[in-house]
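Budget justification, computational time. The allocation requested in the original proposal was used primarily to generate structure tokens for proteins on the priority list. As evidence of use, we reproduce two of the resulting records. The first is shown immediately below.
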Amino acid sequence: MIERIENALQIAVLLACVSVSLYRVAAGRSRMWTLLFFFYGSWVLGDIYWLACLIFFDQTPQISVVSDLSWYASYIFLYMLLRHAAPPETAGRKRVLPWTGVLFAVGMAAFFMQWGKIVSNLIYASLMALLLYSVISRFQDRKKYTAQQPLCIAVLVFCLLEYAMWTSSCFFWSEGPENPYYWFDFLLTVSFVFFLPATKKKVAE
């Protein structure tokens, strides 16, 4: 029951975010708002399919790839949002610190493969590696990317909450409120809202 409630709450929050971002697209025709709209829209489609399976079949999806494809697309749109906010300059710079994000994503993927599917873990690891590399690169050059810092923080929090959810699901299987997975998922729901002011700050720059 708690999973259904949490999923319904996340869908409601995401639909509100979709509405706000769509309004911003119509009002200003900004590419950043468009990318944020597709980020939200892709994620909520995956959530809707997941919740529908819980309601109508009383179980998690047997064909989870439907939701996974929607969430893959969300990661891609989020990465495109970061790229559009400020393309990183790599020429002439030796970047070591951002690769810690890539190593972290690869290491966690190897850990998760004990429970999950190899292909999906590799895809998620690749997408997470892109996001973490991009965010850490911008933190490294924080003076240059001052206006992007709120967006980078929002993306980093989003990624860390995802990993917290995935990790907790490896050790806790109860469906009650004592399972930390649901608390991290609730925090993930809250984190979606913060992309709105972060994007607004960058667009208004």
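The second record produced under the same allocation is shown here.
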Amino acid sequence: MSILTWTRMETLMKSDLSRRMFLGTALAGGVVSLVPVPALALGDAQATQLVDRVVADINKVIARGGSLSSMISQFERIFSNYADVPIIARSALGVDARRASSGQLNAYTRAFKSYIARKYGKRFEEFVGGEISVLGTRKLKSFHEVQAQVKLRGKAPFQVNFLVSDKSGQARFFDMIIEGISLRLSEKEEIGAMLDRRKGNIDQLIADLKTAG
């Protein structure tokens, strides 16, 4: 899986692939948690059920419509409640998470959550009329990969692979691969570039993330 640079990401945001990355992110945010279960107890059926419910939750938001700010707010709530936000956020921060204090990590995670909601939530309306179907599920090491196909009006179908784990004590979605591109790796590149421009200042990164996206 390739790691996108900041410049490439800006270009992708204007392309069909950026729309696909948004959809994968939106679907990730819609994961509905199950009753807490022991680590590694997750089966193919539960992992598939997660993706089925993701599709239903996102479709509800799209069907309700409303203002853009309202849709972004709904997406942030879904992402906050059901995605493994701490894992995704910490992965995006990379090795710099080791030098951050617990207070900085908490503030960064909150800012990252809102940043993701604004960045991808803005594209909800572009996916009205889309259709998503689950193709299959397989166990890979300590997690499950659920393969799905996405069909958009007037666009060629493309594949999104959802990575699901219950290591946190609940079934959670911790990454998705959109046509070979990992959301976590893509955001890691972006967050890393933002931090570099701020000379490694985590507090400044946190402040800027509150309005980025």
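A brief technical remark on that second record: The domain at 6-209 is CATH 3.10.450.710 (Nuclear Transport Factor 2; Chain: A,).
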